[in-house]
């Protein structure tokens, strides 16, 4: 899993269940652990696809639902749980569609698509501008009438502005991907640019984490403690939950249930009125019955559709701000493609597959903007990490996950249940999640020579400037006055986005201050992403387009010059001759003697 995007893996691991392969064929457990039960092009049994598809959905669960909940604060929706549930349904629905498109027509690796915190930071910066600041009355629950046209217009105007910004940003991403420019762009990006960019995503969201946790610090600390207990201290100790096995109908395996336990404890405390019943008392928002009417009001079946919040509007400042997030997202995804190929038994992704993958993610952001999720889509690295645990790298499993997310997006009651998670519980999860995001960004410095005063200066100055400048601009918004309103708005959004400030400064300094590629960590970074791809499938079998499209394209020699089209059959055979001689010698899972597969599914 790519070092800079592994940020969500541990935070989402509270829902991650494991599939472990045990074999008694005379080989060591260590040797068996490195073998794949199913490679990327294999098709496991249907029941295995369903269970592992559920696992992948649960792995991405924490990140997907956290985005609309955090975004609701900037959209003035903190007291409208029903609309929050609609946003959750929409982001699940679009994430499922984008996953199907990516696996079938994009990079064609088993990699899930979903919302990203990389694009959340510029969105919140845009919504913090004076013209989009929520009216004071929207902060008072007693004054909010969620069905009034006035309130609807307040949040929908903000959502439409976000939609237009994401649509414009997605067009840039599609151009960079399908034109093949991403390869040239990556030559100038190194760990000293990525480290501050990713770290500042987590650091910039500290206010959201503190606000949610502050509603009841006891519950938030309990949630954090449970997540830490299950994901760290007990990670090698089995926790009994029901699970299905091929050879035994009921097995027990471990699962990390930090948020679920905390949610359950809050429910018990609410049932016995241990938590205060007066809205004015501290800790009232930890109750689980505050949004119970949302479940009854939510429809059983809902169908998100494009422009459901109205026609998107375009804001220059918003579009430029989203571009900063889009660029970071593209960098992350390229690393994820290489990590996913390594863990799924596939050869390194060729240029045409990477170009298609980035372009397809741009199309996913376009769909997210059209549907109105309030966010874009990107590759989920926590699911890449799940491939290493399950030893099942089949893309058919991810296709099942995509279908499941589409179905979940159409079930209004399911999304409504998610909105009943108490704010302090979410705050406790944010403390872990955003902390790990920040640390994952810093982990990219492992490739850099940190004994170099040059590198220490670049990273330190980038990080500190990215904390100072946005904080000062937010306190003195009138300081930006160029005489052009549009330019003032663009500078306001960019300079209040910590991720952009830190990444931009790091990019400029790293590419202008003299230093060798070894000192800058470029060589180590490239070696880490190349990895060991021996015993992998033929490249053509993995990355060519399906349904005979590649064969059809091969009849037109000029198409091989299009950056996202696979090369002709002859050229492809020449490029992958070495891979053909080293196909992985593996057995289908059903033919393994004395083997046992344990699948955990959280109910």
TrEMBL record:
Keywords: Membrane, Transmembrane, Transmembrane helix, Transport. It comes from Takifugu rubripes (Japanese pufferfish). The keyword Zinc does not apply. The keyword Transmembrane helix applies. It is a multi-pass membrane protein. It is found in: Membrane. Belongs to the nucleobase:cation symporter-2 (NCS2) (TC 2.A.40) family. This is Solute carrier family 23 member 4. GO terms for cellular component: plasma membrane. The chain crosses the membrane at residues 45-71, 91-111, 161-181, 215-234, 255-275, 309-327, 397-419, 425-444, 456-474, 489-509. One of its GO terms (molecular function) is transmembrane transporter activity. Its main location: membrane.
């Amino acid at each position: 899993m790519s070092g800079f995007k592994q940020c969500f893996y541990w935070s989402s691991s509270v829902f991650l269940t494991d599939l472990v392969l045990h074999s008694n064929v005379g080989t060591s457990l260590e040797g068996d652990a490195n073998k794949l039960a199913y490679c990327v092009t294999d098709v496991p049994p249907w029941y295995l696809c369903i269970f592992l598809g559920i696992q992948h959905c649960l792995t991405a669960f924490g990140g997907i639902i956290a985005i609309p909940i955090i975004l609701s604060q900037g959209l003035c929706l903190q007291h409208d749980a029903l609309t929050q549930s609609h946003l959750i349904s929409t982001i699940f629905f679009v994430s499922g569609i984008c996953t199907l498109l990516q696996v079938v027509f994009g990079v064609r690796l088993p990699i899930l698509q979903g919302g990203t915190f990389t694009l959340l930071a510029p969105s919140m910066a845009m919504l913090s501008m004076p013209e989009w600041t929520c009216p004071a009355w929207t902060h008072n629950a007693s004054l909010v009438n969620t069905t009034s046209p006035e309130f609807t217009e307040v949040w929908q105007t903000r959502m439409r502005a976000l939609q237009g910004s994401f649509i414009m940003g997605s067009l840039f991403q599609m151009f960079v991907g399908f034109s093949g420019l991403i390869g040239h762009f990556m030559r100038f990006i190194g760990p000293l640019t990525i480290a501050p960019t990713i770290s500042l995503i987590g650091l910039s969201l500290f206010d959201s984490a503190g606000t949610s946790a502050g509603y009841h610090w006891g519950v938030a600390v309990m949630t954090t403690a449970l997540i830490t207990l299950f994901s760290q201290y007990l990670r090698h100790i089995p926790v009994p939950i029901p699970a299905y096995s091929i050879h035994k109908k009921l097995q027990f395996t471990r699962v990390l249930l930090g948020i679920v336990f905390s949610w359950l404890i809050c429910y018990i405390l609410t049932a016995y009125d241990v938590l205060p019943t007066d809205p004015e008392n501290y800790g009232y928002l930890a109750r689980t019955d505050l949004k119970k009417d949302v479940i009854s009001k939510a429809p059983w079946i809902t169908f998100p559709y494009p422009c459901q919040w109205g026609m998107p509007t375009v804001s220059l400042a918003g579009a430029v701000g989203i571009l900063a997030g889009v660029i970071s997202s593209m960098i992350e995804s390229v690393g994820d493609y290489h990590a996913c190929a390594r863990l799924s038994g596939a050869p390194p992704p060729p240029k045409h597959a990477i170009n298609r993958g980035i372009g397809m993610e741009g199309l996913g952001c376009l769909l997210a903007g059209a549907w109105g999720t309030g966010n874009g889509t990107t590759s989920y690295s926590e699911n890449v990490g799940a491939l290493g645990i399950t030893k099942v790298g089949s893309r058919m499993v991810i296709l099942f996950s995509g279908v499941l997310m589409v179905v979940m997006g159409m079930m209004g009651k399911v999304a409504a249940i998610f909105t009943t998670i108490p704010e302090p519980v979410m705050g406790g999860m944010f403390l872990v999640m955003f902390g790990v995001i920040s640390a994952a960004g810093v982990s990219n410095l492992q490739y850099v020579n940190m004994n170099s005063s040059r590198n220490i200066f670049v990273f330190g100055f980038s990080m500190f400037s990215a904390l100072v400048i946005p904080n000062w601009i937010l306190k003195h918004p009138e300081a930006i006055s160029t005489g052009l309103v549009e330019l003032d708005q663009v500078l306001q959004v960019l300079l209040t986005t910590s991720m952009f400030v830190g990444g931009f400064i790091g990019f400029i300094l790293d590419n202008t201050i003299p230093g060798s590629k070894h000192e800058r960590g470029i060589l180590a970074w490239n070696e880490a992403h190349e990895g060991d791809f021996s015993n992998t499938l033929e490249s053509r079998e993995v990355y060519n387009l399906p349904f005979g499209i590649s064969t059809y394209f091969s009849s037109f020699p000029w198409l091989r010059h299009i950056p996202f089209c696979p090369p002709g059959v002859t050229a492809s055979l020449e490029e992958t001759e070495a891979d053909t001689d080293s196909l992985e010698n593996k057995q289908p899972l059903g033919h393994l003697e004395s083997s046992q597969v344990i699948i955990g599914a959280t109910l």
